Amino acid sequence: MPVLQQPQKPSPIHTQDTSMSCQCPRIPLSPMRPAPEKVSMLFKLYCLVVMTVVAATYIVVLRYTRTVSTDKYFSTTAVFLTEVVKLIISLGMLSWEVGGLRCMASTVLEEVIYKRKETLKLCVPSLVYALQNNMAFVALSNLDAAVYQVTYQLKIPCTAMCSVLMLGRSLSYMQWFSIFLLCGGVSFVQWKPLESTAVHIVQNPLIGMVATAVAVLCSGFAGVYFEKVLKSSSTSLWIRNIQMYLWGILMTFGGVVVNDGFAILQEGFLFGYTPLVCLVILLASMGGLYTSVVVKYTDNIMKSFSAASAIVLSTLASMYLFELHLSYIFVAGTTMVCISIYLYGLPKLENKNDSSKQEPKKMPVSV
Ligand code: NCC
Questions:
Q1: Which of 27, 22, 18, 19 is nearest to 103 (CA)?
Q2: What is the pTM of this model?
């Protein structure tokens, strides 16, 4: 069962009683910590499966648009437009949460514009995610999608390391072992023999690998940083997202100007855009928003475990649907994933006598 994360400490902002101009529900401003939002297991499962399926489709479509299409669009503009789409959807979700556009506007004014210090906190993950999202384009322009997907799994131990260092989580040796086992298992499950696809550009695998390494580090750090900010107060997820995407728009626009500014003046902002490029932007937006919901209701390590289970299940489902044969490497990978989930959920033996350090037993999400 996934663990519903409780906010860890009350934020000073919740002790202030700032009044709003309209009769809006004061969801993000309650001085008391609200009872943890309960969502059904089915809803979590749905978010995880959508996140995983979107991520897999995103990587394949992105790779296609960068290597097979003839007119190469400016990838920085796609990263920028993704932030814009995510901001618009988050504003929509916030107005649904507070009950209308007027209330949404006053909540944004109050929580995002007036609380500059809070908004400033989101500048860090926004910058790191902007770098990560640009690196994904560089990596997938230079590496095969399967190679990228497999190497990108190194983000699992990297995320665990960041959770230990930044959130003060303690992991037993067995849990560390299970994390590396999971990393290997997902890589095996996703492994596909290299196929020579028609590629219309010159690729540099070294650049691809360096970009993947940067993306791995960014994913671990930014994910845990966002989780820390989100769970240290009862501020709504959509407000946190709006704060982050506003910075994201600024940062990624900086990327557009610095990297492609001159060329865009000549060719146009939307040069090389096709319906597939729009699909990349849509998938990137959906993937990002679902990621934020998953992190809200579980945590970043759980996200890795549950995404791994979803990958195994979706691969099994597609094998059943398309009558494909199980390969030995897939069976080995699946076994590794299952064992790692079991091992991660075992109680921590070394903390048994130390009640102060004991955490409630967390079972990984099994899907
Ligand atoms: O690498 P990953 O996620 O951790 O990257 C997180 C992505 O979500 C966006 N995000 C995060 C928090 C938040 N509040 N809002 C957001 O929009 C970040 O901008 C970042 O793009 C994964 O765990 O494997 C996952 O992978 C990505 C993607 O496949 C890789 O980053 C590709 O390089 C998935 N994103 C998409 O499918 C678009 C994500 O769903 C899962």
A1: 22
A2: 0.84
